[in-house]
Amino acid sequence: MLEIIREYGLMLLIGEYPHGKLGGLALTLIISIVSLAVTFPCAILIALARTGQSRPLKAIASGFVHSVRAIPLLMLIFWAYFALPMAIGFPIDATYTLIIAIVVYQAAYLGEIIAAGIQGLPNGQVEAAKALGLGYVPTTFRVILPQAIFNVIPGIVNQLTTIIKESSLGSIIAVSELSYVMLQVNSNEVTKPLQIFGILAATYFILCFALSQATNWLERRIANRRTGRVLVEVIA
Amino acid sequence: MIEFQGVSKWFGPLKVIKEISATVDKGTTIVLCGPSGSGKSTLVRTVNRLESIQEGTITVGGMDINAKSVNVNTLRTGIGFIFQQFNLFPHLTVIDNVMLPLRRIHKQSRKEALPAALLMLERVGLADKANSLPADISGGQSQRVAIARSLILKPEVLILDEPTSALDPEMVSEVLKLLRQLSGEGITMMCVTHEMGFAREVADRIWFLKNGALTFDAKPELFFSSGTHPDVRGFLSSIQKNH
Ligand SMILES: Nc1ncnc2c1ncn2[C@@H]1O[C@H](COP(=O)(O)OP(=O)(O)OP(=O)(O)O)[C@@H](O)[C@H]1O
Ligand SMILES: [Mg+2]
């Protein structure tokens, strides 16, 4: 095991960089964080449509969410990989393909998480904003979203864990992220699959376990803050 | 200042406001009382269009508030509204709560809005809490911040729906004291409350609602006298029992 790490450790971390493209764990992290960052604004729009007053927007958003939730991510990756370039008429880098598929997929899930955060706010918050004469934009961006997003931070971090695991599907379309790199190592070293995939599993585990611990910690802190607030209201 | 003409409202099949006609003169204070479910909240919420009406008209300063030409947000900036549960924005500090209307409606910068907001906090006696979060101040203080926030755009009308009902007894007086002061300064006020001492002292008229109808509209002297409406007499003795 140690000799594999000695020989391929750097490759596991950064792929063939600087002689070739950046890959490995670094690429996995970049893909995951970029995906989450692009997903976030899309998810907010979906959440606003889902919880808003406009019936057509509601219908579109809920149609999107239900369709995406009924298909596997792998299917979206195939679509983005094979069908999208034909539709738009030029090829796209496999890494971008993967990110696009993850963003579309995760927008549905993260959108539902943020929508739940919005619906969980006391009705009095919107009423108070209305009574002050605030319009839709300041009510949404100054009153509703800051609170709703704060309350679902654990869910958002949790979604990052999911994205990291999902990015391993990129190996199917030859995105040289962590799993793909280790698949290649495995074809070089045909006799050591146990060690190689053991290392791969351990890497994902350490990363995702740390993140889920962070999620738990955040959840406790936010729950404390909420009950703290409720307590104050009850005492007051 | 505020005029109700034959106002009726239904929630589905339920008629909760029944042909109410009444006037609130400029600069006067009206106290609304009546049993639970009599429509007090609903009636005051129609004035800033938090509730719609199906019949009649409501005018504020001579303007039909339900006319198509009326911008509802403009209407609301001219009418302060205070809720039982304060409804401060918990993610903003006290001063940021008070500045929010200046910044997001009058589009002032933080720097421009700060002096007026601080002055308003001083008026409600909470300048020292400017940087606290709502979770860290008492209920009475929260309600005073809510009042400061609703007055920051200088509305001519202030409406309060049971402003002291969620408060511990020892905090009621600090809020009532502030309201007494505001009433004296000439703002037009409609206040739903069961604080009858406050009503007797501060109200120019008291409205008694029952089953959605304005049963009695009288000056405090008559309202609390032996010549009052029989329903009022029953109501007054029932709330005295509870206190
Ligand atoms: N959103 C609503 N949908 C349906 N019915 C409602 C709604 N809000 C109030 N009602 C009904 O309207 C009537 C008047 O309610 P309202 O809240 O105005 O009474 P209230 O005098 O303020 O009572 P309380 O003293 O309990 O606050 C009640 O019968 C109530 O059940
Ligand atoms: Mg009420």
**Percent helix range of chain A:** over 70%
Please indicate the percent range of residues of chain A in DSSP E strands (runs of 2 or more). under 5%
Largest sheet of chain A: none
Strand order of the largest sheet of chain B: 6-7-8-3-9-10
Which cofactor or ligand species appear? adenosine-5'-triphosphate, magnesium ion
Helicity level of chain B, as a percent range?
Answer: 25-40%
CATH topology of chain A: MetI-like fold
Main interface by residue count: A-B, 25 and 36 residues
CATH superfamily of chain A: MetI-like
Task: State the name of the first-level CATH class of chain A.
Answer: Mainly Alpha
Name the overall outline of chain A: globular
Mean pLDDT of chain B: 95
Name given to the CATH architecture of chain A: Orthogonal Bundle
Protein structure class of chain B? alpha/beta
Uncertain spans of chain B: none
CATH architecture of the domain at 1-72 and 196-243 in chain B: 3-Layer(aba) Sandwich
| Secondary structure: number of strands of chain A | 0
Q: How many β-strand runs of chain B?
A: 10
Q: How does the helix and strand content of chain A classify structurally? A: mainly alpha
Can you describe what's shown?
The complex is a heterodimer of chains A (about 240) and B (about 240). Chain A is mostly helical and about 240 residues long. Chain A is built from 10 helices and no strands. Chain A has a single domain (about 1-225), classed as MetI-like (MetI-like fold), CATH 1.10.3720.10. Chain A has helices at about 1-15, 25-50, 55-70, 75-90, 95-120, 125-130, 135-150, 155-165, 180-190, 195-235. Chain A is globular and about 70 Å long. Chain B is α/β, with parallel strands linked by helices and about 240 residues long. Chain B has a domain at about 1-70 and about 195-243: Rossmann fold. Helix content of chain B is about 40%, strand content about 25%. Chain B contains 9 helices and 10 strands. Chain B has helices at about 40-45, 70-75, 95-105, 110-125, 140-150, 170-185, 195-200, 220-225, 230-240, and strands spanning about 1-10, 15-25, 30-35, 55-60, 65, 80, 155-160, 190, 205-210, 215-220. In chain B, strand 7 (about 155-160), helix 6 and strand 8 form a beta-alpha-beta unit. In chain B, helix 3 packs parallel to helix 5 and helix 5 packs parallel to helix 6 (about 170-185). Chain B is globular. The chains are: A mainly alpha (about 240), B alpha/beta (about 240). At the A-B interface, helix 6, helix 7 and helix 10 of A face helix 2, helix 3 and helix 5 of B. The structure holds adenosine-5'-triphosphate (ATP) and magnesium ion. Magnesium ion binds near residues 40, 41 and 161 of chain B.
